Amino acid sequence: MITMHAFTISQGALASLLGRIRRTETVGDVLRGLLHDIGTVWSYQLTAIDGRALTVGKVVIALLVVAIGAPIARSVMRRISRKLLARVGVQPGAADAFATLGFYVVLACLVVFALWVAEIPLTVFTLAGGALAIGIGFGSQNILNNFISGLILLAERPIKVGDLIDVNGTFGQVESIGARSTAIKTFDNFHIIVPNSTFLESNVVNWTYTDNLVRISLVVGVAYGSPVRKVEEILLEVIREHGKTVTPPDPVVLFNDFGDSALMFQALFWIAMNRPMEQRRVLSDLRFTLDERFRDEGIVIAFPQRDVHLGSAQPIQVQVLEKPSD
After folding, report:
1. Greater model confidence, 236 or 126
2. pTM for the whole thing?
3. Under DSSP, is residue 56 helix (H, G, I), strand (E, B) or coil?
4. Do 34 and 71 touch, CB atoms closer than 8 A?
């Protein structure tokens, strides 16, 4: 009904404008008439709420407040998180969480302000909001679940931007935490979008929850007869000389076992891991260096060996056949 009235007014304004042009009125008269018609549409009453008129102009202003204010609020919160909070020593993950939560708060204030501008009391949405909430609750449980989970992640911060995590076998670095999902960048440089509820409903390994120090293990086997103390000495030297290892705590070398084909050693040491590939790269460097040092010291890295014993009650007969002539 409201739409039909507005359409009728628009048709009338257009007809009035065309009529003035046909009567060869001056440009000033046409503009004044056009402004009069726009003012008529602008002040047209759509409905009345608690004795207050809801006009087209109020609705347009309210929509403009939200449409213009939301991008400005997002930009301002990002600037605050990246510049102001960084200067006072706030970590990037905490600053990002503050920016996201702050944007939601400002957006809610903008909506309330827009309703105030339109003179729409919040009590009007009590009944409609309850019915809408029930309908949305049944129709979009997963969306609401992920949204609320995202707010919990931003508030409690079990994971934050920049953390190295392992969730359901996926290892990577958290790039962003959104309202519905979290983006994880793997060491193969592709992104995995994980619903926020996954981080609250399943076990998540956070390698950098409190700091970026991680203990890793290097296993090597040497041939029987090798000087075991020399092996320990070389392992400790190679680990300490690597630029990515952290001391203290000091590395530890354990003589694990007398294996089937080798004497098994395990080196435990710490690194500062900032990227998903850091651990694999350090282990690769250490293996290259160990291979060179063991060769120089005459220590053989063992390989699988098997002794085969043939049991027989009678001697095994060996027969040599003469090659047939052509």
Report:
1. 236
2. 0.49
3. helix
4. no
